[in-house]
Amino acid sequence: MNASDDLVTVGKVSTVYGVKGWVKLYSYTDPMTNLLEYREVFMKKAGQWQPVTIMEGRRHGKTLIAALEGVDDREVARELAGCELAIRRDAMPALPEDEYYWHQLQDLLVKVTAGGDDLLLGRVDHLLETGANDVLVVKPCEGSLDERERLIPYLPGQFITEIDLAAGVMQVEWDPEF
């Protein structure tokens, strides 16, 4: 399978665990154990997405450990370190209205209205998880106001005033000079 818009990265293989081919997984899901619940998982190996089956897994400290089908040797498992794990986009549970997955927010154009004009601040590059709230990392893009990277708290109703996924735009209440 080739990389496509149909897949969403949900974790990665971080390292080996034990001598029987188990691996440690770093999960991007919340809660982290959700990664173990997906029936159809894909691994990006040598630039190609390939199906992989998680035979067994459990939480282990701040990570997960898992046995993958066909991986029963520590050296084979070591070769998987760093491989991304993904699921089909349509396998993700539906969210309530006005809630979004991070991948839906990435690449949105971020605009602010200042002095009656719509100004383009940039594009959402990624999000950061902090203790208080998530933070949008907005990087400059073609047509943006300037070349500054901005960190904008993801607080709908406070700084985030509108999200239009169809148009690919997020409207924010933010000082363009900040």
Automatic annotation (TrEMBL):
Location(s), subcellular: Cytoplasm
Keyword Chaperone among record annotations: yes
Domain RimM N-terminal: 9-90
Pfam families assigned to the protein according to its UniProt record, in alphabetical order: PRC_RimM, RimM
InterPro entries: PRC_barrel-like_sf, PRC_RimM, RimM, RimM_N, RimM_N_sf, Transl_B-barrel_sf
Similarity remark: Belongs to the RimM family.
Name under which the protein is recorded: Ribosome maturation factor RimM
Annotated organism of origin: Litorivivens lipolytica
Gene name as annotated: rimM
